[in-house]
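Let's sit down with a protein and look at its sequence and fold side by side. Please make up or recall a protein chain and show it to me in full. Label the sequence line and the structure token line clearly, so we can match residues to local backbone shapes. Go ahead whenever you are ready, and we will take it from there.
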Amino acid sequence: MSTPTDEQLFDRYRGGDLGSLRTLIDRHHDALLRFLTRLTGQPTFADDVFQETFLQIHQSSDTFDSSRRFRPWLFTIAANKARDYLRKKGRRRTLDLSAPVDAGRDGGLSFVDLLEVSIPPPDARLESQELSQRVQGVLDDMPLPLREILLLAYFQRLSYLQIADELEIPLGTVKSRLHSAVATFARKWKLIAETDVS
């Protein structure tokens, strides 16, 4: 018997099978928490937003278009909930669109490599933990719209079209915002690297 897709599980849940939602929660738990931790900068915030996300999934279950994919919908709701949560906490930042274009490589690591550093378990090597903390520090210092689009594109690997569709913004805005996000991240990462050398 084949493993049911997310969409099949969600349809079953909407049909009254509560266990299907539990399966979806378990299936996306780790990836969604990592995403939310990167987006909010705080594991405790991420836990709160995670719960709010699945509460919203439950409340909005009738609005889900079963011809679309569940995962982008889930992560878009999570990103929206994180944005709302950060606003309530008074952590809004101004948009920095003046970042110069810079290469996304430093020390042999690509930009994607840096974003994919997972939140380390307590027994992880200190070096990996320091790298993860530096990445998180750079992300925390970025304006929320740039951080959000960066995580959706590189961490969750959503396409430009999926991001435009899910965030309800024009495709050109996705591209320009992502370009600014990459440039901002690269500039801030370069500053950290230069500080370490000096």
User: Anything to note?
Assistant: The longest helix spans residues 171-197.
